Write a sequence for this structure.
């Protein structure tokens, strides 16, 4: 009897080893007795579709690829695309098997407002898995010689000399949205479409613009040297990575346009795979201290888990905000 029991235990042990080595993941697939059922995923290369190299989404995609490679033992590659919409099209064109993942950003409604997504229904063609990090980085900045230290002082100064002060803009971006909200808050600034981050910094450093809308990490060294004055963050809450910078909202100016990074898969993907991937990502976000240190140190981002339904709601709310300020049509 003992020999039979030992043999049974040995067989079970070998079976578990075989399952783990074959890359079978365990997820709650809704079995009748409530026990997890095996999901035969992942077993081959996973591709993470995202935007061009060098940005926050590319960084997050590469960090996630590294972790998935280590944890699952399969090759995970990052596919870079120019722009926010091509990664979605590539996801939709792929098989609904979990082997193509999309790294997206909640500023995506801007693309919808611009008409570049008219043929895409995200709620029908994408399954949102969950949010990984918040990226409350965008700030409004001036130089010390302008003589203002709060957003209200800037608005008052602009009203005293209408359209004389210039602000960096990037048409069709979250910077553009910020400029529109500033105007609605009473600021009378002249927008100058200079382009992306490096162009903003060049225009501001060259005194072509007196006001800059730019991410904090890009200007951090100048701020710490006392050459720039950051008036406020364009987020609902202060970024804990630079807690001394107040939000515009807490100064009484209701300008909030938060951005977060999330993961999605193609609609129709096995719910058990989606559930397993969500649990895996949630555990990283909530429990992996190394992950928190990496995203904080490298990108000033904050780990923040939200499930797929919450991500979908945020995207809808962001679009409604664009409608409210006249950036998008109902």
């Amino acid at each position: 009897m003992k020999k039979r029991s030992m043999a049974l235990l040995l067989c079970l042990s070998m079976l578990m080893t075989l399952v783990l080595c074959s890359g079978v993941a365990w997820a709650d697939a809704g079995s009748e007795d409530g026990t997890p059922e095996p999901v035969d995923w992942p077993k081959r290369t996973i591709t993470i579709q995202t935007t061009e190299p060098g940005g926050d989404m590319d960084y997050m995609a590469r960090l996630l690829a590294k972790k998935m490679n280590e944890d699952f033992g399969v090759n995970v590659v990052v596919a870079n695309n120019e722009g926010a919409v091509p990664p979605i099209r590539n996801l939709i064109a792929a098989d609904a098997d979990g082997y193509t993942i999309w790294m997206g950003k909640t500023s995506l409604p801007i693309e919808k407002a611009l008409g570049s997504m008219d043929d895409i229904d995200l709620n029908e063609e994408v399954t949102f898995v969950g949010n990984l990090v918040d990226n409350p980085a965008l700030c409004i900045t001036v130089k010390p010689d302008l003589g203002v230290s709060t957003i209200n002082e800037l608005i008052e100064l602009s009203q005293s000399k209408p359209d004389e002060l210039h602000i960096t803009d990037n048409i069709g971006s979250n910077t553009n949205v910020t400029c529109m909200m500033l105007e609605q808050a009473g600021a009378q600034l002249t927008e100058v479409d200079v382009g992306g981050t490096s162009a903003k910094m060049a225009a501001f450093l060259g005194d072509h613009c007196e006001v800059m809308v730019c991410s904090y990490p890009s200007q951090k060294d100048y701020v710490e040297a006392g050459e720039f004055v950051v008036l406020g963050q364009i987020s609902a809450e202060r970024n804990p990575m630079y807690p001394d910078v107040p939000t515009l909202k807490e100064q009484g100016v209701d300008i909030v346009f938060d951005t977060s990074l999330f993961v999605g898969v193609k609609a129709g993907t096995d719910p058990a795979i989606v559930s397993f991937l969500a649990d895996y990502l949630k555990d990283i976000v909530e429990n992996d201290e190394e992950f928190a240190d990496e995203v904080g140190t490298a990108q000033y981002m904050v780990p923040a888990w939200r499930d797929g339904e919450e991500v979908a709601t945020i995207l809808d709310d962001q679009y409604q905000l664009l409608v409210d300020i006249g950036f998008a049509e109902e």
